[in-house]
């Protein structure tokens, strides 16, 4: 087609010397002259291929009109009023009721068409229905729109165009057309310019007579392919930088496999808690038991579960070593937080374990009491596993974002204030807190955020002040409070990027193309 069009332009130039108005051209394969915007764009492409050899051109700006989808429909099926008229019986026959009219022409056409048909005197009311009032009509709207479609304008003039614009049947569009002249190297045969200088051309000397295609420095480059961060990783990086800018240290979270002790017991989760059951937690079969935890600490944890202590009465149920030693896939990253807090308390216990955390715990301005404690702000973002039935919003593994803050005399107000700051940085300004229950925190709060697009409160996280039954066996002094919270990573990512099935985001159904084109990777 492109070559045929070029040939047509050259033949026309050959016959007439100039082509005064490209809107008069009939593009090969099309029935009407090239009045439309798209047709002129096609012609422009052909002209540029001939430019500075066979042809030159001048550009003229025009404003023309194109049909809206409603306008297109009217060209095809007639105006609403004409369709209403056509659907009605002749005067004297039984009138057609309003409901039947709607059924015949559709709700929209019935509504708009009825009024207009009345005004033009095409239809009349009779009894409970309508009949034709005119035996013949001229559908001016359709005729005018056909004219606009083929020429971009109307012989009837600007007033008639304005009326069609007002009725949103056409819109104005800036367009171009061209006047074409013969170029310096005019010929009716299209020279196929060379695109490359080859060895053959050089040895044969044919390059001297060849014409070469000009470089087009305005052409779009070929899209480059390269790595793209998965949306979940992108959001993970954003959250990580919020934590870092708030002075948090990242916790090591490489331990996907944990023991019942660190995942539950250390957190004062009762050994008979339903979360520990097989349908909620994945247990390992080989190996199935863990190495023993630090023995003194293990003893203290077992004691507080079975008999209480530190002001608590405990659960008063027999302690099971077996339950504590079971290996499992961690169900929350709070298992890692517990291990880190245990390390943080080392100096308070008078130990000097490997952690660089305890190394800084000298008495000094940040730690006036000299009890070995130093305040800490820790976070992690990593995978957890739950034995869930999978569906559009649940998988058996997902990411948790978790943070803990340890300091002397922290209060619930510190936790709430802290979360307001943190979530504001994540773009969530409107928060609500609801009392909740966790075995390891008291009080506990669920966090809800107002979602402006979904127009509802969505639960985004869970939080609380860790219980003394958890902190005291670790060795923290009684005035040290630790608060913590956990939020999901997939859910905010899904909401943010309009993903409604988690399986398109995670797992084998993820398409690389989606990842590359996802708005999340573009900033
Ligand atoms: N572990 C909790 C969860 O899985 C989150 C949490 C962490 C709650 C720390 C309180 C304190 O939802």
TrEMBL record:
Recorded hits in InterPro entries, A to Z, give: aa-tRNA-synth_II, aa-tRNA-synth_II/BPL/LPL, Phenylalanyl-tRNA_Synthase, PheRS_DBD3
Q: Name one GO molecular function term.
A: tRNA binding
Instruction: Name any Gene Ontology BP term.
Output: phenylalanyl-tRNA aminoacylation
Q: Which domain of life is it from?
A: Eukaryota
Q: Name one Pfam family in it.
A: PheRS_DBD3
Instruction: Domain (Aminoacyl-transfer RNA synthetases class-II family profile): give its ranges.
Output: 375-519
SUPFAM superfamilies, per database record:
Class II aaRS and biotin synthetases (SSF55681)
Keyword set, alphabetical order: Aminoacyl-tRNA synthetase, ATP-binding, Ligase, Nucleotide-binding, Protein biosynthesis
Q: What class of enzyme is it?
A: ligase
CC per GO annotation: cytosol; phenylalanine-tRNA ligase complex
Q: What is its EC number?
A: 6.1.1.20
**Which NCBIfam families has this protein been placed in?**
PRK04172.1
- Which protein are we looking at? phenylalanine--tRNA ligase
